[in-house]
Each structure stands twice: as C-alpha cells, then as structure tokens.
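Design request, tokens follow.
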C-alpha cells in the first residue's frame, strides 16, 4: 500500500494591491505600535505575499512617511479656512496637533520628519499665504511659518513620547505636569489607562495653546503695516 502523498502547501493568493489598500492595512495594525508595522504583518493583513508591498513602498521608512501624509490629509480635510489669517493659523496648528495625536505611536516616529507629500505641501502653502496676508514678505513668512511648524510638531512629539511610556511612568509625568509648579504638591486620583491618556492630551493642549497664543500675538503685533 503506497503512502499517501503529502498535501502541497497553499500558495499565497494573488491580491491586487495599491498604495491606498496598503496604507489602510498599515493603519489597521499601527495601533499596536509602529514596531507592528512590518512587511510580513502587512502581508498577513492583506492576504498577500509581503514582497508585493515593495512594489509600492521601497522600505518601511517610506511607508511611515506616506502614513504621515495621510494624517496631514486628514488635518487638511478637517481644516476650515476663514477670513482672518491669525484665526486660520490657530486652527491649522490645533488641527494638526489633534490629528497626529490620534495615533501617538506613529506621531512619535514621524512628527519631526518631512513627508514630501501633497498634503504637507498644501498645509505649508496655506500657512505661508496667511503670513503674507499679514504683510510679511516671502522670506519673513517662510521663517515665521517654519518656526510655527517646528513649535507645533515639536510639542506633538513631546506629548507622543509621554504617551509611549509605561503606565506608572505616565502617571508620574501627569502628576508632575499638573502639580510641580505649585506648593504643596498634591497626588492626583488613580486613573484608568484611557482617563490618563485623555488627561495628558487635555493638559498638553492647554500648554500648547498658551505657546501658540503667545506666538500668534507676537506675529500680529509685529506684522508690517500695509500701505
């Protein structure tokens, strides 16, 4: 009696991939952390051979920057432009912050990077236009908007770094942030993971808003008088 032939291993099903499909899959798995975004895990999520991903993204870094531009695109979709340049800059900065920090693990990796994407360029052009509407010339506008962008993205990254800490370390940071500048210091209530995360976001936005308003006040007061 002949031995039964072993079944052949199933081959990966051929799946038609696009940049958009791959990015959607990457966002589905990134909540576990940026380390979870690997080509092998993407292949498993997509039901495709991982090597197929390389036809659209040369490496993981390129994929992460494309994901960052998707977050910028979300910001631009949420941004509402008005008539007042100062209000526009305020809304843009706050919208960027909120969009990035919905995915703090990803923000931690990419907030300090240029994406080179269309959404990034659109956000920069909007802000430059607002600075020039205040009377600043092109070179002045570039310097000011770079400063605003670096302040905004730097604070995003700072908040994202705290949100990446272990729970006890996060709790200590929150206690220090909320009580370090007053005496006597008081120990705050024990919070759930979600409550702690929300408290960090609220506290961080309050600090960032103070920085932003100080910057915008100076920007408005120093604006060249239009002829």
């Amino acid at each position: 009696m002949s031995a039964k032939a072993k079944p052949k291993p199933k081959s990966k099903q051929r799946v038609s991939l696009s940049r958009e499909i791959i990015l959607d899959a990457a966002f589905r798995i990134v909540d576990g952390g940026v380390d979870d975004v690997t080509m092998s895990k993407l292949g498993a999520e997509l039901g495709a051979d991982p090597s197929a991903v390389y036809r659209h993204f040369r490496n993981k870094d390129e994929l992460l920057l494309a994901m960052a531009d998707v977050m910028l695109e979300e910001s631009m979709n949420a941004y509402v432009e008005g008539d007042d340049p100062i209000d526009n800059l305020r809304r843009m900065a706050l919208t960027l912050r909120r969009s990035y920090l919905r995915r703090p693990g990803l923000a931690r990796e990419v907030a300090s990077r240029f994406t080179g994407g269309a959404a990034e360029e659109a956000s920069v052009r909007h802000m430059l236009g607002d600075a020039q509407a205040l009377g600043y010339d092109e070179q002045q506008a570039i310097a000011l908007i770079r400063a605003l962008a670096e302040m905004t993205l730097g604070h995003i990254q700072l908040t994202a770094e705290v949100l990446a800490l272990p729970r006890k370390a996060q709790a200590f940071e929150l206690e220090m942030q909320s009580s370090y500048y007053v005496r006597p210091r008081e120990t705050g209530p024990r919070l759930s993971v979600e409550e702690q995360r929300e408290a960090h976001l609220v506290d961080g936005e309050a600090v960032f808003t103070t920085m932003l308003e100080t910057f915008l006040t100076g920007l408005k007061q120093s604006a060249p008088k239009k002829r």
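Comment from the thread starter after seeing the answer: thanks! The mean pLDDT is 87.
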